[in-house]
């Protein structure tokens, strides 16, 4: 796994901490899911370097939804 410059990764017991230019994130790791932990680390690295945004879509069937 390639780690970009400016990203620090710390692994303590069952917690993975990733710190980058856009913040710090952490996640607990499970021993039975090594591949999943690697995917989580990859996503955490992407989030602290490029950032992320949540999108919400409203879906309705009978009555319109008002959101503010």
UniProtKB/TrEMBL annotation:
Signal peptide bounds: none
Membrane-crossing residue ranges in chain numbering: none
One GO CC annotation: cytosolic large ribosomal subunit
Keywords, in A-Z order: Ribonucleoprotein, Ribosomal protein
Recorded coiled-coil stretches: none
Keyword Nucleotide-binding listed: no
GO molecular function: rRNA binding; structural constituent of ribosome
InterPro entries linked: Ribosomal_uL6-like, Ribosomal_uL6-like_a/b-dom_sf
BP term (GO), one: cytoplasmic translation
Family, as annotated: Belongs to the universal ribosomal protein uL6 family.
PANTHER family: 60S RIBOSOMAL PROTEIN L9, 60S/50S RIBOSOMAL PROTEIN L6/L9
Protein name: 60S ribosomal protein l9
Species: Phtheirospermum japonicum
Upper taxonomic lineage: Eukaryota, Viridiplantae, Streptophyta, Embryophyta, Tracheophyta
């Amino acid at each position: 796994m390639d780690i970009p410059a400016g990203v620090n990764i710390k692994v303590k017991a069952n917690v993975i901490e990733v710190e980058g230019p856009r913040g710090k994130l952490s996640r607990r790791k499970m021993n039975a899911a090594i591949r999943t932990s690697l995917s989580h680390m990859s996503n955490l690295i992407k989030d602290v370097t490029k950032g992320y945004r949540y999108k919400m879509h409203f879906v309705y069937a009978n009555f319109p939804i008002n959101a503010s």
